[in-house]
Amino acid sequence: MQVTLKIRRFNPEKDQEPWWGEYKFDAEPTDRLLDALNHVKWHVDGTLTFRRSCAHGVCGSDAMLINGKNGLACKLLLKNLGSKITIEPMRGFRVIKDLLVDMEAFFDKYRSIKPYFITRSPEPEKERLQSSEQRQKYDDTTKCILCGACTTSCPSFWANPDYVGPAAIVNAHRFIFDSRDEGEEERLSVLNLNEGVWRCRTIFNCVEACPRGINVTRAIGEIKKALLLRKI
Amino acid sequence: MGKISKYVTYRGQEGQWSWLLHRITGIGVFLFLLAHILDTAMIGWGPRIYNETMAIYRHPLFRIGEVILAGAVLYHALNGVRIIIIDFWPESNAAQKKYFYAVVVLFTLIFVPAAIYMMAWMTK
Predict the structure, then answer these.
(1) Torsion B38-B39-B44-B45 (CA) sign
(2) Which of B10, B14, B92 to mutate to probe the A interface, most A CBs <10 Å?
(3) Which residues contact A147 (CB under 8 A, 6 or more apart)?
(4) A232 and chain B: CB distance < 8 Å anywhere?
(5) How far is CA A150 from CA B20, B48, B103, in A?
(6) Which architecture characterizes domain B12-123 according to CATH?
(7) Contact between residue A207 and residue A171 where contact means Cβ atoms under 8 Å apart
(8) pLDDT tens profile A95-107
(9) Which pLDDT tens digit goes with each residue over A70-83?
(10) Which residues contact A139 (CB under 8 A, 6 or more apart)?
């Protein structure tokens, strides 16, 4: 099939304003969008810049705004995107070059919710046991790959870049609802701040954007409820 | 990228549109309430001034505005219930699109007859 990629290009060293680059070529309908981007980079214009690593929807490097909606370039097939595909960098992050965005603040927020086990009770003799029901409570939020698709689809985040954002909250949920973890107080106190979970307006763009199918808004809702009722 | 345009150019779905409508109707109702506080305050200057102010609301433009206001209040109320359900029962989130369509159906069922009734003066 013939595809036309319309890519929002920007090189801060050369360009005053972002511009649209159009690239027309033949591709297999079963090719992924990442293959098409690689085709442009390898055979048409080597200056095209974007992140990619594993290329199999696991590392979370190639999230971008595809046809007006966030997704991973490596998980979308050309036949499902149509013959003219518009690609922009994720919104709300500073563009470093083309589709490459500065995610430093994003990871700062991720670190702010302490994404690691916190325990105070004395170490048990063997491992810390957990029933499958207890594991089930946070199963959904273990799937996050930190691609940023949810956070940059969120109107609350666009309006206020200080909002901790869905991705950080999902990762907080993963620990808060883990029966073995004992750090819920410190995590909840971060999420109860002005820039915490209460900025969520249940718009559900994050749920639509998540390439891992996480029900992000539900996870945020469970934390809101835990804060309100002081019960996990 | 313009500040406002990103809110409408992102291809969000039911959730995004329900939220945008909720915001717009909320601002609309708020602006009416401000005007309403002012017009009610006119009573302080006596019945004549008050009655003259209230007469403005009988202007055709305001009577059409009244229908739009009723629609805004109705949508805001119905979607407000949807948001309350979503907020207090996070496990119901998976059904949020169905709730939105329920809001649309209920809105149509209530608003269409109400609007016809409110616009009846036009045909007289």
Answers:
(1) positive
(2) B10
(3) A60, A61, A62, A63, A72, A211
(4) no
(5) 18, 58, 26
(6) Up-down Bundle (1.20)
(7) no
(8) 999 999 999 999 9
(9) 999 999 999 999 99
(10) none
Whether A201 and B16 lie within 8 Å, measured CB to CB: no
Q: How many residue pairs from chains A and B have C-beta atoms closer than 8 A?
A: 70
Which of A68, A155, A202 lies nearest to residue B86, judging by beta carbons? A202
* Chain Cα centroid distance, residue B68: 7
Contacts of B13 in chain A (CB under 8 A): 204-205, 208
Q: Is A201 on the interface with B (CB under 8 A)?
A: yes
Q: Do B15 and A207 touch (CB under 8 A)?
A: yes
Distance CA A3, CA A96 (A): 26
B2 interfacial to chain A (CB closer than 8 Å): no
Cβ distance A221 to B93 less than 8 Å, yes or no, reads: yes
pTM: 0.92
The interface predicted TM-score of the complex, written ipTM, equals 0.88
**Mean predicted confidence (pLDDT) in A65-73:** 97
Q: Is A13 helix (H, G, I), strand (E, B) or coil?
A: coil
DSSP tag of A127: -
Residue A194 DSSP class: T
Asked if the Cβ–Cβ distance from A218 to B93 is below 8 Å, we say yes
Q: Are strands A69-72 and A63-66 parallel, antiparallel or unpaired?
A: antiparallel
- Cβ atoms of A50 and A37 closer than 8 Å: yes
- The domain locations on chain B are 12-123
pLDDT of B4 reads: 76
Angstrom CA distances, B114 to B31, B67, B82, stand at 22, 8, 22
**Using alpha carbons only, what angle is made at residue A72 by residues A70 and A216, rounded to the nearest 5 degrees?**
60
Residue from the list B10, B16, B90 with its beta carbon closest to the beta carbon of A225: B90
Cα–Cα distance measured from residue A52 to residue A19, given in angstroms and rounded to the nearest whole number: 22
Helices (H), A2-78: 33-39
End-to-end CA distance of chain A: 52
| Rounded Cα distance, A95 and A3, in Å | 25
